[in-house]
Amino acid sequence: MINKTVRNLAEAMQGITDGATVLVGGFGAVGQPDALIEALIEQGATDLTIVANNAGTGRTGLARLMELGRVRRIICSFPRSVGSVVFEELYKAGKLELEIVPQGTLAERMRAAGAGVPAFYTPTGFGTLLTEGKPTAEFNGKPCVLEMALPGDVALIQAHKADRWGNLTYRRSGRNFNPVMAMAARLTIAQVDEIEPLGTLDPENIVTPGIFVDRVLRVTV
Amino acid sequence: MSDSFTPLSRKDMARRVAQDIPEGWYVNLGIGIPTLVADFVPNEREVIFHSENGVLGMGPAPGPDDADPWLINAGKQQVTLRRGGSYIHHADSFAMIRGGHLDLCVLGAFEVAENGDVANWATSANDTAPAVGGAMDLAAGAKNLWVVMEHTTKDGSPRLVAKCSYPLTAMRAVRRVYTNLAVIDVTPQGFRVVEMAPGLSFEALQARTDAKLDLADSNKDPNHG
């Protein structure tokens, strides 16, 4: 019997190694897997590359992970926001490598990784600082830059309902990067609100099929 | 200067942009003044607002009883979903943008150049902490890109320029600029003034603009429009 549900956070975090690239879902706080991020802090892996839209706020969650010196590099579209104090301190002190990626390019680089496309051309960012040095080509008169797929070793995502096969549904704008990150990582770990018996999620409503998901943990808030 | 004219308020600028959005368009509104535009599109005119964090058919801010923490816009404010709205993940959301499916994006900006270059994400090449979000995708992908911004900076420096001095968001992307002083098209020949704030002379507008302005024909003829 396939059973991707895990019993606790420690089990969910097993096998995450130092130096891993970790994709973290969410757009701001919405759809962010808070419990899994806390568990990663507990678990201890370090020298991490974090891929997330934002770079954390306050001194908890991603910000805490960074403050503990466990993040070598962050890849994101919008690190600077109200309360992103830890990021700004570390960045100014030169203690954090930063790669800024246009938001749609960030999503597409992960989608490409999940889809087996190693690189793709996009018009986004052509002629800007963010694409300096990248190969360019013109298609149908439109200048484009070459962007590389962005695979993760691990994805930490948040979803609404799951079943033991790892099928997932989402809640409103909490969907955001989560389905794309689920596709793009070798080990995808989902924090969910509810686990339903197999066969009760409407197949028409399953956004992330279980093929993209390795572990599911129910987290009650 | 001694001209007597009334610059548009932020709300009036948003109202002016809203006037030009036809029914049926799919529209993404950036943060700041652009977000206000939705308030001035009358309900009976069906315009479908897209928010890049995965909402198509976004409605206004919720009332106290229907606030939903799971439903936010790209500015991370709580919003609602209109009847007929849907949710999409980030890659599909940006496929809508980059794939040319959006009719219009309205962005704020620091500078727009006469060739349509736009700078709106960083004020220098070595910003302490740069952040771009979806601006580059929106500027490169929407069928029409309009910018709404103050005509000059707080200290009076022009924002409509011959060449952008800030890092670019996209090259040759802007079609139209709405400022507190004028509505200006970006044409292959440069900036063309379509409309000016009441009481403002063309000379006064030019004095506040770095790039050379041209007057649209309809503005040259006092009996027209």
UniProtKB/TrEMBL annotation, chain A:
Pfam families on file: CoA_trans
Q: Which residues form a coiled coil?
A: none
Give the transmembrane region(s).
none
Record's keyword terms, sorted: Transferase
- Which SUPFAM superfamilies does this one have? NagB/RpiA/CoA transferase-like (SSF100950)
Q: Does the keyword Transferase apply?
A: yes
Organism domain of life: Bacteria
Q: Which Gene3D superfamilies match?
A: Glutaconate Coenzyme A-transferase (3.40.1080.10)
InterPro entries referenced in this protein's UniProt entry, alphabetically: 3-oxoacid_CoA-transf_A (IPR012792), CoA_trans_fam_I (IPR004165), CoA_transf_BS (IPR004163), NagB/RpiA_transferase-like (IPR037171)
The family assignment reads: Belongs to the 3-oxoacid CoA-transferase subunit A family.
Q: What is this protein called?
A: 3-oxoacid CoA-transferase subunit A
| Organism placement in taxonomy | Bacteria, Pseudomonadati, Pseudomonadota, Alphaproteobacteria, Acetobacterales
Automatic annotation (TrEMBL), chain B:
The cross-references to SUPFAM superfamilies, in alphabetical order and at most eight, read:
NagB/RpiA/CoA transferase-like (SSF100950)
Assigned protein family: Belongs to the 3-oxoacid CoA-transferase subunit B family.
Source organism:
Teichococcus vastitatis
UniProt keyword Disulfide bond present: no
NCBIfam families, per the entry: pcaJ_scoB_fam
Q: Which UniProt keywords apply?
A: Transferase
Pfam families with a match to the protein in the record: CoA_trans (PF01144)
Protein name as annotated: 3-oxoacid CoA-transferase subunit B
Q: Which InterPro entries match?
A: 3-oxoacid_CoA-transf_B, CoA_trans_fam_I, CoA_transf_AS, NagB/RpiA_transferase-like
Write down the PANTHER family for this protein, in alphabetical order: KETOACID-COENZYME A TRANSFERASE, SUCCINYL-COA:3-KETOACID COENZYME A TRANSFERASE SUBUNIT B-RELATED
Task: Return the PROSITE patterns for the record.
Answer: COA_TRANSF_2 (PS01274)
